[in-house]
Amino acid sequence: MNLFFKVSSCTGNLCNATNCDSNPCKNGATCLDHNSNFSCLCKPGLTGRLCELHQNRCESSPCQNGGTCTNGVDAFTCTCARGFTGDTCEKRTGDCTDPPIVVNGRVRSRNSYGFYTCNSGYKTIGIRMIRCVNGRWIGKPPTCQLGEQFKIVVKTVPVLFTKSSMCTLISRPLKVAENSFQYFPRLREFDGSL
To answer: Regarding beta strands 105-110 and 84-85, do their DSSP bridges make them parallel or antiparallel, or are they unpaired?
Structure first.
């Protein structure tokens, strides 16, 4: 036989009690009182009614290329197989350190290759790519040499002046090939000024 009593007034410490007084939530979660029940607001990486379970961040198999996943609180770490690196073992290393750098240039590594480019104003001397094989870079990085400067040479050409048509010589450059210019004269009527 169950007996229910209706209490119209309350006095004492028990009257102010809540469902959260016993600290039912685990791992530093926040308890929320709901009249006759409670709920727990879990910190990131935790789950369960009382926030007692760690979420399995490795469940989706985030580590690539044979990497091993280790679950943590709100995180995971990958231990990469030989020849791979990165947060999820997505990059192939070929077991080499970073490729050698070049002065006045840049290097980018990808899939066991090092690709070189020279800064603006510099030209590449040598092969622009090296490869990582068994932990060693094969090939010699290029050098970045200051590009050839343009040299402008102006030659004077004698012009004949006559009474009937006074003309003056005006030079204008004409680009004919990379790194070279050739000048051709252009004539205009002489207006008397120099």
So the answer is: unpaired
Q: Are 82 and 95 within 8 A, CB to CB?
A: yes
Q: Determine phi and psi for 28, rounding to 5 degrees.
A: 75, 20
Q: pLDDT, tens digit, for every residue of 33-83? A: 988 899 999 988 888 999 998 888 899 999 999 999 998 877 899 999 987
> How many CB atoms lie under 10 A from the CB of residue 81?
13
3-state helix, strand, coil in the chain (%, to 5): 0, 40, 60
Ordered structural domains, the chain, with CATH: 19-54 (2.10.25.10), 57-92 (2.10.25.10), 94-146 (2.10.70.10), 149-194 (no CATH)
Unique residue bearing structure tokens 């090092």? 114
Query: What's the CA gap between 11 and 91, in Å, rounded?
Result: 68
